[in-house]
Structure formats: structure tokens, C-alpha cells
Amino acid sequence: MYMSINTMNQDAIASNDVLGNLTTAVLVLDTSLRVCYINTATEILFEISQRQAEHIPLQNLLPGESRLFSSLKRVVTTGQALIEREVHLFLPASGEILVDCSMKVLDIDQAYVILELSQLDYQQRINRDENLHTQQQVVRGLAHEIKNPLGGLRGAAQLLERQLDSEDLKEYTRIIITEADRLQNLMNRMLGPNQHPEKKDTNIHEVLQHVRQLVDIEVDERLKFKIDYDPSIPELYADFDQLIQIFLNIVRNAVQAMHGVGLITLRTRIQRNLTIEQHYYRLGLLVEIEDNGPGIPKTLQDSLFYPLVTGRADGTGLGLYLVQNLVQRNDGTVTCNSQPGQTIFSVTFPLELGRER
Fold first, then answer.
1. Would you tell me which CATH number, out of the four given (3.10.180.10, 3.30.450.20, 1.10.3210.10, 3.40.50.150), belongs to the domain 5-120?
2. What is the 3-state secondary structure (H, E, C) of the chain?
3. Tell me, which fold does domain 199-356 have in CATH?
């Protein structure tokens, strides 16, 4: 038996007017994800009335959407609130929109879930991406300027070492050479990979299993992996080695954040009706790397993929910068949602490119 918002207790009824006056779209769902109530903003967004929407499955309003439904089911199961940022939703009435999604179980009654959709300003997203691109170009320019004299510095230290008889003095030249090599490697990482991706049909689960095996060697039994794969996912047209580097960097970041103790979930899903870099795709691959660590500080979340941004004293701030660089080279996009106890890196690739080449 389905219940409308009018059958909730008096506190819920009192909040009805509050929800109705909000400018963000709010939906109240039962635990089967059927609509109990929508506010005025939702009626406008979906072009449907409260009476028409009541009792229908949310899947009818958002056909083909899998990521949001997976998150809602987690909220229902765990009772924990969840926020998904920059989610692409396809609305039959108006096409694709970009939203931040907030999901939580209603405090007044455990039988209901509230979903809030905050539509994002697409121009704001473009401006942020352009700012990131500008910073990347500046860093690459600086890396070139620093890299050029390093070769001369190293060569001069080698020549000097040959002229010295004292082993004590040679120790200083070795330090110069070692540090020059270290800086050279750092500059190479800042510049990113020079070679073009060598794309071929790739099984994403082979990539993730290889990453898991590499990390297993570095950790002990206090770190656990959970596998949640969709076996129906077709092959991805991408560079195998670059995919390894992408997910190895993300997983190692998670391990370091948790100090080698915790749970990392590797999840794959099909996505439908998605947009990447203003290109529309009917079919895509979503890979999620989830950990139950302390989370990423809010002060870092907006600049997470910027070069030289790190939350660790010994970090270079280039790992996630390189991740984004490699993801973009393989026509994908990467985002992160983090709160204490749950951090999810979401990497999305189109699945149509291999068939169209």
C-alpha cells in the first residue's frame, strides 16, 4: 500500500509548505523509490503535477538512470545521507540537465527518503574547467623552463666529480646529481605523458584486477577489497597502460588516506544518456573507486585535480592531476564526492567510440 505525503505525521504535513516554497526540486520517495510528494520546483522541472507523479516509480521520471538509483538504494539500506555532485540526468520533457543530488532518510519517519536536485549553472562549470586548463598550461610552461637548465646542472656536476680526488667532496656532487634527477622526474610528471594513447578494445575488469594485484603486494590483510562488477559491460576502446595508471593512482591515494587500513570497493556500471565534454553518448561506462577513509577536506575538494594540490606533507600534488590528464586523453571525465567515511572517485568513459572507429 502506497502512502502520500498527506498520510505522514503532523510534522511532515507542516513541512509541506516549506518544501513547496523551495526553489530546488524536492521529491519525497518511499523505500521502493516510488514518488510520495513533489514540490512546485519539481513539477516545473519534470513538467508533471503532484497528482500525476504520486505513487509512480521514480524510474518512470528518469528512464535509463542507474547511478542515481544505485545511490538512493545505498541510502535506503544504510540510512546514511549521500551527496552526488555534477550528475547528468536525462529528462524526457526537457533533455539533459546537470545537477547536484542530495539524498537522506527523513528523520520523521524511516519509511521515506528525500531527494533534492539542485540544477547547476552550466556556464559556471565551463568557467571552472577553463580555469583548470589555464592552470595546467601555466604549470606545463614552468616545468619546461625548470627542466631545460637541469640537464646542464647535472652535466656540470658530473664533470666536476671527475676532477675531484676527495671522496668527501664527491659526495656533494652525487647529491647534486641525485637531486637533479629527482627534479627531472618531477618535471616529467608535471608535463604529463608525451605519447598519444594507443587505444584498443580493453576489458575494464582486467584493468581493475591488475590494479588490485599491484596494490595487494604493497599492503597487508588490514586492507580489504570489495568487487562489484557489472559482467555485461562491453569492451572499452582505450589505452590499457594509461587505464592502469589512472586507477592505480586513485587506489593508492585511497590506501594512503586510510593508512593501509579499511575497505576499497571497485564498482563498474553501465550509464545511459550521458554528456562528456559537450558530446552526447547513448552508452557509457562508469567506474567507481570507493573507500571508507576519513574523507577529503572540504578546502581541497574544489581544487582536487589542480596541479600541486595535496593534503599530504610528503605529496607532490601531481597524482590526481595526472589522473585527469590521462582520463581526458581517453575521452573520459573524472569527478570526486567525499565526506567522512566515504570517498568516491567516479570515472566515466563513452562506450560508443570503439564501435564507431
1. 3.30.450.20
2. CCCCHHHCCHHHHHHHHHHHHCCCEEEEEECCCEEEEECHHHHHHHCCCHHHHCCCEHHHHCCCCCHHHHHHHHHHHHCCCEEEEEEEEEECCCEEEEEEEEEEECCCCCCEEEEEEEECCHHHHHHHHHHHHHHHHHHHHHHHHHHHHHHHHHHHHHHHHHHCCCHHHHHHHHHHHHHHHHHHHHHHHHHCCCCCCCEEEECHHHHHHHHHHHHHHHCCCCEEEEEECCCCCCCEEEEHHHHHHHHHHHHHHHHHHCCCCEEEEEEEEEEEEEEECCEEEEEEEEEEEEECCCCCCHHHHCCCCCCCCCCCCCCCCCHHHHHHHHHHHCCCEEEEEEECCEEEEEEEEECCHHHHC
3. Heat Shock Protein 90 (3.30.565)
Per residue in 209-231, pLDDT (tens digit) is: 999 998 998 889 899 999 999 99
- Residue 347 confidence class, pLDDT cut points 50, 70, 90: very high
* pLDDT confidence tier of residue 109, bands split at 50, 70 and 90: low
